From TrEMBL, chains A, B:
It comes from the Bacteria. Belongs to the NtaA/SnaA/DszA monooxygenase family. Gene3D superfamilies: Luciferase-like domain. The lineage of its organism: Bacteria, Pseudomonadati, Pseudomonadota, Betaproteobacteria, Burkholderiales. InterPro entries: Diverse_substr_monoxygenases, Luciferase-like_dom, Luciferase-like_sf, NTA_MOA. Residues 44-395 form the Luciferase-like domain. The keyword Membrane does not apply. FMN binds at D68, T105, H155, Y159, S230. GO terms for molecular function: monooxygenase activity; oxidoreductase activity, acting on paired donors, with incorporation or reduction of molecular oxygen. Keywords: Flavoprotein, FMN, Monooxygenase, Oxidoreductase. SUPFAM superfamilies: Bacterial luciferase-like. This is Nitrilotriacetate monooxygenase component A. The keyword Oxidoreductase applies.
Length: 459, 459
């Protein structure tokens, strides 16, 4: 019903497909750095990130996205890590581009709201209104130990802190009203202090007086992005997020997720267009499906098997010696269920593998070294069909693309898939604006004090 | 004696003059934003900062420098504030330049060592080895209240935290040895984990396990900068800093400061060239001295007198109504003494004003709206003479330039003063390298684990 009403309306603007590229060093398959044209040091080379961003901007992507961690990854002997701090790297990218959005991850667990509000407001200023903040909590013990803790804070505590954190950051972003900078050279009045406001926040986790020492940024607020799959995560997203990265593995689940999220958002007084659902998607592209599958197997087979076995065993909660490459998964192994937000490609592939009797090697290939997000192995046409289907049906407003290799896999997508999506009228041919909010069709948030003033005047 | 021995040696490389430009929005005189060619919004416009940096790079400056605060400034109704977060803004500047160093301020009081280590290592990576960190503690109540505190931590406590903070950051910067990234495509070995080390720090203020999730940056460590004048500050500088910003007001005091600092550094086993002393210097330039003085008075008279009176009164510890513009300072007013690190231009000018019977207006003009740093009002020749004298005598290794207006005052310096310094062989005509350490003549710190390994092999 929702779909019908939205497509039958002649007055509503057409829905737009949104595409981000997630820049994870040399690509999402852990062996990407081993290809002949890859530089193993690309993960710490700003030129690599700029090059990927420029390819994405030439193809009119909405944004580049950077993940982040607060500790070293496991198994660094086999693959690059997420090393460079995102907001700084995104400033470098913004300087070399003009339109594409720049979304960076920062944790609410090991930062202070005042610092994060400043950094993303600054990124919004230097990028001319292209910044987004991906709000995450941090759950690994390694990170906890880098910040004076012996244990990971519990799930509910992390999300309570995150929700208060996001509220404080928004309050700080409202510190300066649009008209606060007067700059009257004749009178010498620089700022109207009546339009600069304290936050005066006192909460369970934070006491922050404010005001922020950064004037209102071009987008009002940088775009708030989130990726919560759990109940707490969905609730945080429904309250604060304007774009959500989902890891849904099937069309039906993604549709259910999108509907659930938009229902939760409505409970906070937010309309269905206020939160965009972007599904994670790894692509492995070939001129034929057989060629794409060959590419996948070649990439997976370049990952040291000890790495893949350890990773799979870790996710399954067993020791690596329980898994034999050319045997099936042990029959007595209970697979993780698909409840509690575990609707990922990983869980679906496990179930499929058991059903069809995959060997461990076949299972690892089918997972394509993926980290829980969906993988499509196929031709540009097949990938475009899938994207169009999900988009038109409302299972996703767009995709957070995680190419198998970078920049190669992105270039293949741009050369092969984008023209098809453009011909079908699904994806833009030109940018219509220069801000991330503009690309995503998100409103600029009204400053709370300006709104109060307007309401008072209207009485 | 030190001077003689250093100038009589034929083998030592020539000492080099170092010049940074401190980019404080539209310039160091608070009225700079009111000039006809100034944009009042320049303080939040990345293009403004990039333009200043490009002028400085064309003139072969060592670095640009950005101050920082963790709260809003007083009297924002009269002048711009330090708004944009330095590391992000410096990444933007680095992307638009190729040689000049980028030094940013970050506080040890309201950050975590792991985050700071990451950010400056990242800035060093994206700038290709041009990053510096100005280590400060934060002493204002406004900042404390933005980070959950009701009071400012005491001086000794702030410096104890800062010293431990700097030690942890250095340990984290040593996490990855130079050879840790193997990147062997044939074998699949990406990193040699024997060359990646935990910090395992347990101290009074921090517990940080490490390793840092950023590989060793181009400079080994970003350059450590500090500006402490107090005993605690000098000690922190002697232990960790490689460049120190001083606010010395007179030649003799600066010489004493430089000698004291280098003596303290020697106690930590550091040579006299391991710490560069850069004196703060505001310049107001005219074709004649009379023209320069007119420029100064015009700029000062453009500052609202209520602002200047409030600022002066605040520094003197009296209420503004005690000060009458066209009268002398009240005779019963006790001026702040020049002890305890108070050897600043401000204190010297106060003493001079009392001696010569300045009115408050004349005193405010003589201070040129300055914030405690020395002001030279004069011709390019006079300024070059002063710089050369200080430099050759060892009262400073260089200057942290704080032009009256930006970019205008810097352009005047570049057009007028730099050619004189170059003709006299005091300042470089070309860069000899591309790193900040190279410009400053500072060694790349040896990784502590690599050093241990080398020592073990040598036995």
């Amino acid at each position: 019903m929702t779909r019908q009403s939205s497509t039958s309306s002649n007055t509503a603007p057409p829905r737009r497909l949104h595409l981000n590229v997630n820049i994870l060093h040399s690509g999402f398959v852990p062996s990407a750095w081993r290809l002949a044209d890859a530089d193993p040091r690309a993960f710490i080379d700003v030129k690599h990130y700029v090059r990927v961003a420029q390819i994405a901007e030439a193809a009119k992507f909405d944004a580049v996205f950077l993940a982040d961690n607060a500790s070293i990854a496991d198994q660094i002997n086999f693959r690059p890590i997420t090393a460079l701090e995102p907001t700084i790297l995104l400033a470098s990218i913004a300087a070399a581009t003009s339109h594409i959005g720049v979304i960076g991850t920062a944790s609410t667990s090991y930062n202070e709201p005042y610092n994060i509000a400043r950094r993303f407001a600054t990124l919004d200023h230097v990028s001319g209104g292209r910044a987004g903040w991906n709000v995450v909590t941090t759950a690994d013990l390694g990170s906890a130990r880098n910040f004076g803790r012996d244990a990971v804070p519990d799930h509910a505590g992390r999300y309570a802190r995150a929700a208060e954190f996001a509220s404080v950051v928004k309050a700080l972003w409202d510190s300066w009203e649009e008209g606060a900078i007067v700059g009257n050279k004749a009178t010498g009045l620089f700022a109207d202090t009546d339009q600069v406001h304290a936050a005066a926040h006192q909460g369970a986790h934070f006491a922050v007086q404010g005001p922020l020492n950064v004037p209102r940024s071009p987008q009002g607020y940088p775009v708030l992005v989130q990726a919560g799959a759990s109940g707490d995560g969905r609730d945080l997203a429904a309250r604060h997020a304007e774009a959500v990265f989902s890891a849904s593995q099937s069309f039906d689940e993604s549709l259910g997720y999108a509907r659930d999220l938009k229902t939760r958002a409505a409970a906070y007084g937010r309309g269905p267009d206020a939160v965009k659902v972007l599904a994670g998607l790894t692509t492995i592209i070939g001129a034929t499906e057989a060629e794409a599958l060959r590419r996948r197997d070649e990439l997976v087979d370049l990952i040291p098997w000890s790495y893949s076995l350890t990773r799979l065993a870790g996710t399954l909660g067993v020791t690596p010696d329980r898994l034999k490459l050319d045997e099936k998964l042990p029959d007595d192994l209970s697979l993780p269920g698909q409840g509690n937000g575990n609707h990922t490609f990983f869980h679906a592939t496990l179930a499929q593998g058991r059903q069809h009797g995959y060997t461990v090697r076949e299972l690892i290939r089918a997972l394509a070294g993926g980290g829980g997000h969906r993988v499509i192995v196929g031709t540009p046409e097949q990938i475009a069909d899938d994207i169009e289907h999900w988009f038109k049906a409302g299972a996703a407003d767009g995709f957070n693309l995680m190419p198998d290799t970078l920049p190669g896999g992105l270039q293949d997508f741009v050369d092969g898939v984008i023209p098809i999506l453009q011909r079908r009228g699904v994806f833009r041919r030109e940018y219509e604006g220069t801000t991330l909010r503009g690309h995503l069709g998100l409103a600029v948030p009204e400053n709370r004090y300006s709104a109060e003033r307007a309401a008072a005047l209207a009485v």
